[in-house]
């Protein structure tokens, strides 16, 4: 009997999760003596391990490594790692009755990094419950490695024998068992002491892999491995209540299951599979997959023609290689044709093979569309089959031979083959397919220029002239220059101590170039330069100190020499910041750059792009007819999606669905519609895509697990005014548990990562970095296929949101007025009460005032109860659908044409000098009004200061005398009586009122201010005619601008 040769096996690997517990800082004292004796317990996939205990230290240092076995690397991203810190009661001298909880950290596998890219991260300790008192942070370094494991039969047998015979001893070496062709290592026994344990003895917990049997179909010489019974004093942790030793694997996702099964009328059973395109309308397509052919007649470059009753498509010709047979061509193409079962019931599908140069018929076949199978998206791909090619009826058509391998089925847009298919509504396939893009990973590169030594300064400087030495740093298209360096009088050393921040995008292939220049003369002189690869710069995740380095300068106008100049720098890549590429108020992601600092997702955002209606024509075809080739782009977080392009349609139907993970509900989803011009471009030209409109939807305004199907107008503000370009139909769902503790806790957390508050960036610096980030993202997405143009990226990211606009200024002012409208309304209501417009209401207010004065403890609860009732009342008027653009709020419907023309003007301006002068004078008139309002505010504040500043001695004497009298009265009279008297005096009837202003207001208005000290006397003076001109100018400026615009308007 011969034994079959064993098949070669792939090397077995085992994934290990490494948790390096470094230290902790600022822990809470819990031992009753002002300190704590902390230790750490780590729990991953049922495996628990702990560190040693540090005696009486609130800033303990462990520097210990804990290893865990990852049983299934495919589901590691859903596994949870929980790290808890406890106070060891054994070292508290009997003052602690239990191991007090000091804090915990929860992470998921999606936050783990592969070994070699990890870094030390300090995580703030979290509470276990609302009433926990926790503080401090813990430093961890978490990563995973894949290790090769060799199988040795003798060692396995020896370990099995040793495990079965030694029941009273704990194994010193890890056991190795075979599970599903993988070798798993049982972790070493560890000590675990949890909070509230009844006794201080050490409990040993060991995790065993499940019992499996190796199938011996091909390896008969390998005996089955049986899991031995655990020793008596080792308690085995099991995931279920079953009596067997098999451990049940449960796929745990962060924060529970987000499947939207709570929506009524969609699914009848919880176990029913959710369709991946349940938000959009299913669109049927006829799919034809052409794989290859064999045994064809002699040919040069065959191609395939596919024809139905309403469509016709051709495949690409086959180009043979030098040593390849011409009888066996391969295409590997998929075609998708829009299909209607009612119209295509009696239609046929014709597939034929032709030779490209000679148009010679090589064979074909026909299918009846009523017999084509329908494939469900959950099924596996349909297997292609070989079909015999048939000839034509014409006897002169030539010899037909060979077979063709293909598959034909009917499916929907949810089919796996739809994304890469040649669709019937997309003739230019390279620029019309639906794609998903990812923004590059962006870092802030911080360059701290400290000093430079041994610089070769020109010796022929004028007397008493200090050299002006600056450092210019360049990274790609970004360039920043430092201020003038401070010089040491005794040596040629210059000091700066200045931070320069750049935006660097992965894969970090650029070079950081620093140029030291002497700009004393008119022409700058290069003193030296240094080039530093960005990939070699250290990455920092928190505010820890980074060591500085000296770099030698090369080049320069003075050449080299025995003494080389050098520069002192501190370089680091900041991973604790979020690199803003969107405006802060419409940002879609606030996560930091470093993946280790990400929090788990709280939900899933699903977007169904249904279609558009009544789009305007964007281009003109050859026959003079207008057409639109529309596609849609959606952006949320780092993920961009692009639908396919629907050619020559004013009512395109996309019906595509996409999903995003949501880490913060206070974010914004942006959807834009564009007209495709790039699919018509040649190599020599590059026409940008035209923007049709966009819609923004704030995720926090969506209710949990509710589908919103709405139509939004596509509005574009052009030079001629506001224009409606059409409408877009969307279906949106935010799948998230509505009152999950993690979801509610996000509203109390900082909006930006921690580094933005520890080392904040300036407003102007942040705006400049945002512009650099937009250019970096645009350059990255332009390299994709099909490319996402820079004009699309700039439009989606609002690159021009910071430009000046009179319309935006008016809209912001009206927003402030609307915010203060409640205060104005409250003041009007109080005025109506004190004027007795409604006597019944005024009497009720008197009674309520008496109750609150006599029982002041009810004031605060009554205020909060009133706010609660207001919120309940406004629940009736809550928005039913997510709001889009408000043309009234943005003043887009009433904008003046000249103001709109100014908003679209470039910087520097491209308008004639007359228009610029009129606009400048109008801006001066507006600024004068703002100047007057600011002066009035300053005047009121200075009058308050004048009460006790003795600028007006008589007024100050009167004021302090009245204060003394009020003090005596308040000491003598009970405060409740004073409050009642003041309230009733304020609410007195109008018959007891004087129509003139009260004495207190008259006294305040007579107090002096400093406005008389700020007036600068002009030499020439200001004539009365100029004053009248300034008052009348604003009304006539628009008319003058309109006349000039008409004269200078292009034909």
TrEMBL record:
Gene3D superfamilies per the record? C2 domain (2.60.40.150)
| Family matches, as SMART domains | C2
**Membrane topology of the entry:** Multi-pass membrane protein
Task: Report keywords, A-Z.
Answer: Calcium, Membrane, Repeat, Transmembrane, Transmembrane helix
Q: Positions of the region Disordered?
A: 215-241
Using the record's annotation, list all stretches that form the C2 domain.
Answer: 1-122, 268-387, 423-551, 586-712
**Broad class of the protein's primary localization:** membrane
User: What name does UniProt use for this protein?
Assistant: C2 domain-containing protein
Q: Which organism is it from?
A: Nyssa sinensis
């Amino acid at each position: 009997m011969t034994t079959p040769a064993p098949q070669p096996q792939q090397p077995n690997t085992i994934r290990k999760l490494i948790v390096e517990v470094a230290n902790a800082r600022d822990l809470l004292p819990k031992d009753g003596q002002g300190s704590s004796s902390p230790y750490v317990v780590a729990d991953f996939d049922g495996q628990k391990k702990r560190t040693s205990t540090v005696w009486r230290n609130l800033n303990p240092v462990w520097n210990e490594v804990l290893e865990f076995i990852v049983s299934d690397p495919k589901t590691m991203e859903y596994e949870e790692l929980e790290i808890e810190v406890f106070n060891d009661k054994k070292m508290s001298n009997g003052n602690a009755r239990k191991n007090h909880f000091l804090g915990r950290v929860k992470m998921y596998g999606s936050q783990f990094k592969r070994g070699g890219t990890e870094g030390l991260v300090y995580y703030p300790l979290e509470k276990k419950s609302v009433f926990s008192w926790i503080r401090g942070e813990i430093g961890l370094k978490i990563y995973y490695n894949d290790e090769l494991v060799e199988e040795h039969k003798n060692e396995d047998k020896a370990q099995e024998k040793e495990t079965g015979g030694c029941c009273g001893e704990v194994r010193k070496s890890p056991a190795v068992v075979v599970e599903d062709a993988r070798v798993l290592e049982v972790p070493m026994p560890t000590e675990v002491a949890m909070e509230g344990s009844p006794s201080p003895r050490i409990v040993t917990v060991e995790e065993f892999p499940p019992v499996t049997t190796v199938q011996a179909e091909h390896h008969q010489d390998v005996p089955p491995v049986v899991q031995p019974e655990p020793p008596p004093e080792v308690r085995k942790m099991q995931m279920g209540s079953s009596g067997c030793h098999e451990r049940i694997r449960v796929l745990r996702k962060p924060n529970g299951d987000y499947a939207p099964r709570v929506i009524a009328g969609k699914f009848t059973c919880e176990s029913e599979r959710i369709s991946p395109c349940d938000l959009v309308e299913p669109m049927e397509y006829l799919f034809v997959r052409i794989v290859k052919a064999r045994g064809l007649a002699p040919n040069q470059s065959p191609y395939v023609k596919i024809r139905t009753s309403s469509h016709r498509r051709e495949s690409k010709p086959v180009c043979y290689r030098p040593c390849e047979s011409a009888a066996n061509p391969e295409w590997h193409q998929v075609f998708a044709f829009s299909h209607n079962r009612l119209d295509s019931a009696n239609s046929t599908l014709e597939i034929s093979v032709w030779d490209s140069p000679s148009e010679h018929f090589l064979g074909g076949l026909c299918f009846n569309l009523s017999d084509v199978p329908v494939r469900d998206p959950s099924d596996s791909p349909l297997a292609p089959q070989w079909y015999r090619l048939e000839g034509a009826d014409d006897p002169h058509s030539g010899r037909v031979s060979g077979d063709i391998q293909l598959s034909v089925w009917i499916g929907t847009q949810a089919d796996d083959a739809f994304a890469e298919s040649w669709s019937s509504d997309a003739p230019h396939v390279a620029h019309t397919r639906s794609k998903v893009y990812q923004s590059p990973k962006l870092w802030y590169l911080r360059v701290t220029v400290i000093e430079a030594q041994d610089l070769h300064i020109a010796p022929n400087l004028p007397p008493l002239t200090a050299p002006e030495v600056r450092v210019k740093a360049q990274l790609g298209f970004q360039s920043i220059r430092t201020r003038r360096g401070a010089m040491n009088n005794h040596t040629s050393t210059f000091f700066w101590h200045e931070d320069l921040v750049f935006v660097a995008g992965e894969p970090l292939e650029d070079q950081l170039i620093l140029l030291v220049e002497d700009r004393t003369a008119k022409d700058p002189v290069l003193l030296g330069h240094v080039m530093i690869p960005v990939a070699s710069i250290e990455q920092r995740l928190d505010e820890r100190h980074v060591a500085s380095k000296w770099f030698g300068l090369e080049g320069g106008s003075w050449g080299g020499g025995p003494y080389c100049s050098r520069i002192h720098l501190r370089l680091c890549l900041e991973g604790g910041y979020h690199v803003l590429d969107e405006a802060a108020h419409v940002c879609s992601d606030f996560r930091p750059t470093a993946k280790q600092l990400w929090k788990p997702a709280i939900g899933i955002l699903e977007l169904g792009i249904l279609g558009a209606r009544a789009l305007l024509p964007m281009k003109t075809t050859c026959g003079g007819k207008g057409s639109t080739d529309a596609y849609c782009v959606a952006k949320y977080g780092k993920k961009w999606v692009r639908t396919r392009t629907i050619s020559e349609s004013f009512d395109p139907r996309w019906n595509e669905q996409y999903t995003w993970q949501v880490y913060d509900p206070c974010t914004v989803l942006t959807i834009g519609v564009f007209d495709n011009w790039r699919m018509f471009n040649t190599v020599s030209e590059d026409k940008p895509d035209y923007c049709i409109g966009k819609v923004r939807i704030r995720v926090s305004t969506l209710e949990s697990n509710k589908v919103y199907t709405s139509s939004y107008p596509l509005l574009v503000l052009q030079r001629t005014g506001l224009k409606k370009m059409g409408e877009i139909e969307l279906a949106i769902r935010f799948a998230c548990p509505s009152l999950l503790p993690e979801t509610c806790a996000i509203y109390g957390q900082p909006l930006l990562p921690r580094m933005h508050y520890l080392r904040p960036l300036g407003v102007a610096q942040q705006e400049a970095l945002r512009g650099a980030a937009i250019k970096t993202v645009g350059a990255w997405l332009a390299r994709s296929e099909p490319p996402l143009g820079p004009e699309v990226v700039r439009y989606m990211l609002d690159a021009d949101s910071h430009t000046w606009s009179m319309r935006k200024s008016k809209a912001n002012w009206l927003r402030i007025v609307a915010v203060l409208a409640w205060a104005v309304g409250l003041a009007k209501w109080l005025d109506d009460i004190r004027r007795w417009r409604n006597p019944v209401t005024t009497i009720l207010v008197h009674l309520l005032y008496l109750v609150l004065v006599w029982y002041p403890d009810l004031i605060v609860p009554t205020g909060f109860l009133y706010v609660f009732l207001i919120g309940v009342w406004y629940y009736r008027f809550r928005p039913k659908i997510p709001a889009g653009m408000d043309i009234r709020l943005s003043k887009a419907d009433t904008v003046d044409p000249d103001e709109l023309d100014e908003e679209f003007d470039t910087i520097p301006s491209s308008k004639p000098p007359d228009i610029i002068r009129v606009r400048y004078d109008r801006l001066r008139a507006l600024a004068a009004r703002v100047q007057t309002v600011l002066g009035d505010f300053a005047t009121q504040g200075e009058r308050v200061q004048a009460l006790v500043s003795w600028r007006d001695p008589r007024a100050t004497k009167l004021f302090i005398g009245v204060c003394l009298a009020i003090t005596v009265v308040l000491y003598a009279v009970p405060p409740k009586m004073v409050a009642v008297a003041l309230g009733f005096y304020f609410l007195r009837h109008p018959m007891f009122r004087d129509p003139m202003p009260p004495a207190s207001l008259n006294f305040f208005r007579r107090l002096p201010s400093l406005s008389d000290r700020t007036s600068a006397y002009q030499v020439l003076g200001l004539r009365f005619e100029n004053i009248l001109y300034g008052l009348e100018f604003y009304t006539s400026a628009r008319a003058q601008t309109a006349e000039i615009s008409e004269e200078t308007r292009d034909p």
